[in-house]
Amino acid sequence: MTADVLPSYLAGAWSRGSGAGTEVRDAVTGETVCAVSAEGLDLEAAVGHARSLGWSELQKLTFPARAAAVKSAAAALQARKGELYELSARAGATRRDAAVDVDGGIGTAMVFASLARKELPDSVVIAEDEPVMLGRQGTFAGRHVLTTPRGIALQINAFNFPIWGMLEKLAPALIAGVPTIVKPATPTAYLAEHAVRIIIESGALPEGALQLVSGSIPGLFDLLGGQDQIGFTGSAQTAARLRADAAVTRRSARFNAEADSLNCSILGPDATPGTAEFELFVDALVTEMTVKAGQKCTAIRRALVPADRLRDVAEAVSAKLASVVVGAPGADGVTMGALVGLSQRDDVRAAYARLVAAGSAVFGDPDKVDVHGAEAELGAFISPLLVRVDDVDRSEPHEVEAFGPVSTLLPYSGAEQAIALAARGEGSLAGSVVTHDPDFARDVVLGMAAYHGRILVLDRDSAAESTGHGTPLPQLVHGGPGRAGGGEEEGGLRAVRAHLQRTAVQGSPAVLAAVLGLPQS
Amino acid sequence: MTADVLPSYLAGAWSRGSGAGTEVRDAVTGETVCAVSAEGLDLEAAVGHARSLGWSELQKLTFPARAAAVKSAAAALQARKGELYELSARAGATRRDAAVDVDGGIGTAMVFASLARKELPDSVVIAEDEPVMLGRQGTFAGRHVLTTPRGIALQINAFNFPIWGMLEKLAPALIAGVPTIVKPATPTAYLAEHAVRIIIESGALPEGALQLVSGSIPGLFDLLGGQDQIGFTGSAQTAARLRADAAVTRRSARFNAEADSLNCSILGPDATPGTAEFELFVDALVTEMTVKAGQKCTAIRRALVPADRLRDVAEAVSAKLASVVVGAPGADGVTMGALVGLSQRDDVRAAYARLVAAGSAVFGDPDKVDVHGAEAELGAFISPLLVRVDDVDRSEPHEVEAFGPVSTLLPYSGAEQAIALAARGEGSLAGSVVTHDPDFARDVVLGMAAYHGRILVLDRDSAAESTGHGTPLPQLVHGGPGRAGGGEEEGGLRAVRAHLQRTAVQGSPAVLAAVLGLPQS
Predict the structure, then answer these.
(1) pLDDT tens across B223-259, in order?
(2) Which of B241, B449, B515 minimises the CB distance to A147?
(3) Contact at 8 Å (CB) between A131 and A325?
(4) Is the pLDDT of residue B45 over 50?
(5) Dihedral sign, CA of B355, B361, B366, B369?
(6) Residue B65: φ, ψ to 5°
(7) Which chain A residue has its CA at the smallest distance from B437's CA?
(8) Using one digit for the tens of pLDDT, what is the confidence trace for B313-332?
(9) Minimal C-alpha gap between A472 and chain B (Å)
């Protein structure tokens, strides 16, 4: 029996690709969920639909009106989020994991909508800064304005956060007035499809503002040019391939990438066993290893610990990992779900093997795990795995990413070495320093800032309210240099402005006022 | 006799590439000026020198201190600018042309230095915005900081403005603390070399902050990665090739391109013969065609004129072009110099042939020009050339750029068609609208903003102080979407910030204050 092909929403209608497609299996039971295929779908018509109807419909709305539409879409998801939770379990996500994805995504869209309603003008144009006087007589001035490009956004998302990953890109694009085609990752495309279905059924968005391609997109880049923008989250390899496309290199379509990185967390020299910071470090590491079974692009892959404390940390983390219960999401006592699929588990095992060859295993067996509430053989289950690499000059801990519940302990001595080791990651999305010593915090934060999109300083003072190492926030930039893709998302209304074209307009003060629709004084 | 190879300034010393190199000839006399070769030069050592000494020396200076160094460098150029004027003539530049390049460049560096001294903190870190409170109890907050990447800037410049083009990139990079390697275009590399020599001799900059490669740079991209940035001005083809390099696609080196574009100027329907705006339009077109013999990436390539006024404009422009005197810079009465070289003239003639085949010649003969003060056969002289294309749907006027004193008249009817034709350029650095009708100005400016980095509204009110269609200003962004390269330079302190890494720092308010070196309240 062939599986049902997952629908796409293109040019105002739901349709299904032809052919057998790629089969997607339940991460827990191995049962078939759906097939994914965009074969035969008319992507050129979809792009045309976005460019014409989608663009003009969004342009009829001012920034606050678009923000209201985004808020309505988020509210529709909120009202039906139980459906998304249920589906999330099929991807191996526990309730906690699904909350990060579903509630995190809805909350992110709500924050963007709120910021835009409060701070953006009731217009389709933003005047930036103040006018710059360019002559002594005051007859000639310049001003920067931001307008919506005459193009579309193609958003290519990762499998790990199908809802959050979609909404954090979609909300700013729509508020900026850019009609969007979403292309989810195949393994969790059915979650994105359901979220898009809820949004479309809600009628919150004007037709053409949001389309969905469930499946691969050969030829779609050929339709994109200098007014279009591509947002990508996923592997560095795919980012490199897409970024080399003529749409980007020749026609200057904007390209923003967010790729996985080997994020580090640094335990401060002051944080000895028994201090609050020692506990916070251990807790954070276990959390980051186990949420989404470690399938997070911001997870802590490298735990940097003062050399004399490596054994203490190894013991404390191992003790906590020992109480992690792996199994079917929702089953009694389960605290960590499955990887998204069996091939993902193969990849994690292979990467783990390279890491452990550079050092030694501290906790966990990649081939053995007690599974609760599911058949261990059928689902993509794996034990949390902690490695220790004492030879910090080896490349593996800084380059090999096991995209699962895997982390490496590394010893260091002094702020300077901690910074140097952090930099060995060649660019990360997130880093953290767990210390109550402000001098150490300052040295390390400033020392490693250039390699990071976000750095958390965690201590006893902020722990209760801290959002944690791995959590991007809509108010703060998300992205990072180098290996992390060199991009920037979120960051409050920066994310909206990043979708707009900046133009310097020059002329008499009266003309500048007329262009911006201001009263001519 | 082989020509002397132009020196490079690398790793603290002047050195010459080996081999015969590429011969550079005087644009006016055809005499050999120098040879350009970087063969055998140790570029890896140069990159290392920038990364180590250059970076740490610049990091010892705060933003205002770096700005003071840039100001000193600009002052050194100012004191010896006669030397640069003299050399400019060898590239075919008149005194007016050289002023745009030399004085424009020095002024640009001065403006960046002034803005930075006034507005940037006496620190090596910039705190952006206000802290964002992330918890109800006020114990957890976030703030964006900007720090200098741990890398270098490689700046690849175009031949047409060797001084301005270098300084508009160099000044913001140095103020941001990024050590820079400059790679000038071969045909005018001797001008860049002399400017760098003046700066180095002045001692204004710390050693390692500025290096110069006179010649090609095979293998240099292999040394660049995620902390480095590449600034490129030149052809779209070269931009596409460089942007596809693994340094950019795989290692996420930042890449900013500024490419030539088919900029338009639009005459408003109100601007009938006899109005100030009609005259301003004609004057601007002639100026943009003849300054630097039209070798300007912002020059007006497409003059959009109300259909019923095409003949009036053609006549008025032709009358002015008839009084242009082509010849040796400095020779009596000469108002337009030579193209940079004979192969450039071949390119211009070939492009002109394509344009004229799409319409008809209005003024000038590509193969015939009266030359004053020089041998017409030896120098790269060409007549100003005006074309008219009535079939505006043809692709040539919107796609074929003759990088010389060449422009095309195109008829239009109504703001909507003017906007649509402007958009046919697929992205431009600069556009202008010459009108005294604020409604037309608004419609056209907002309608074509998304395709432009800068738009000038020219009218009788601002004409006396207007800096003109083709002049980028350090206070306003320079760049443009699509064909113009998709980049952004200048724009005041945006240019400095664009060289820095933005990082969101999270923690308790006390830690954020400590990181930024603020008193802990």
Answers:
(1) 999 999 999 999 999 999 999 999 999 999 999 999 9
(2) B449
(3) no
(4) yes
(5) negative
(6) -70, -40
(7) A511
(8) 999 999 999 999 999 999 99
(9) 10
Q: Percentage of residues in chain A with pLDDT exceeding 70?
A: 99
Element (H, E) at A191: helix A189-202
Give me the pLDDT at residue A521, please.
44
Q: For the purposes of burial, counting CB atoms within 10 Å of the CB of A274, is it exposed (0-12), middle (13-18) or buried (19 or more)?
A: exposed
Secondary structure (3-state) at A358: coil
The CA–CA distances, whole Å, from B321 to B279, B324, B336, B362, B383 equal 14, 5, 10, 11, 9
Point out the residues of B that are catalytic: 258, 297
SS3 at position A430:
strand
Q: How many CB atoms lie within 10 A of CB A219?
A: 9
What are the backbone dihedrals phi and psi of residue A249, each rounded to the nearest 5 degrees, phi first?
-75, -40
Helix B164-175 to helix B189-202 angle (10° resolution) is: 40
Q: Name the minimum distance, in Å, from the CA of A321 to any CA of chain B.
A: 26
| Residue among A140, A145, A256 with most chain B CBs within 10 A, to mutate | A140
Residue B166 corresponds to which tokens in the numbers above? Answer: 């270098």
Which residues from chain B sit within 8 angstroms of residue A457, using beta carbons? 505-508, 511-512, 515
Q: Give the residue-averaged pLDDT of A369-376.
A: 94
Instruction: Tell me the pLDDT tens digit for each residue of A454-508.
Output: 999 999 999 999 999 999 999 999 999 999 999 999 999 999 999 999 999 999 9
Rounded to a whole number, what is the distance in Å from the CA of B146 to chain A's nearest CA?
8
Question: Is the pLDDT assigned to residue A1 strictly greater than 60?
Answer: no
In which residue are the tokens 């998801």 written? A77
Mean pLDDT of A217-226: 96
Q: Name the residue facing B504 among A142, A249, A453 (closest C-beta).
A: A453
Interface test with A, best of B265, B508, B512, B518 (most A CBs within 10 A): B508
CB contact under 8 A, A423 and B514: no
> What are the backbone angles phi and psi of residue B376, rounded to the nearest 5°?
-55, -30
Token pair, residue A239, equals 């980012």
Quote the pLDDT of residue B521.
44
How many Cβ pairs closer than 8 A exist between chain A and B?
A: 285
Bridge partners, residue B488, by sequence = B479
- Mark yes or no for CB contact B501/A132 under 8 Å: no
Distance CA B295, CA B297 (A): 7
Residue-wise pLDDT for B127-186, tens only, equals: 998 899 999 999 999 999 999 999 999 999 999 999 999 999 999 999 999 999 999 999
What's the CA gap between A384 and B33, in Å, rounded? Answer: 68
CA–CA separation, A193 vs A197, rounded Å?
6
Strand bridging mode B428-434 / B264-267: parallel
All residues of chain B having their beta carbon less than 8 Å from the beta carbon of residue A491 are 144, 502, 504
Give pLDDT tens digits for B63-103: 999 999 999 999 999 999 999 999 999 999 999 999 999 99
Residues of A in contact with B502 (CB under 8 A): 453, 477, 488, 491
> Cα A356–A357–A363 angle (5° rounding)?
20
CA gap B243, A250 in Å, rounded: 9
Helices (H), A449-497: 494-497
Burial class (CB in 10 A: 0-12, 13-18, 19+), B173: buried
d(CA B434, CA B441): 8
Percent pLDDT > 70 in chain B is 99
The dihedral through the CA atoms of B511, B516, B519, B521 has a sign that is: negative
| Closest by CA position to A385, among listed A401, A398, A374, A399 | A401
Given a contact cutoff of 8 angstroms between Cβ atoms, the answer to whether A175 and A63 are in contact is yes
Q: Is B3 exposed, middle or buried, given 0-12, 13-18 or 19+ CB atoms closer than 10 A?
A: middle
Calculate mean pLDDT across residues B425-441: 97
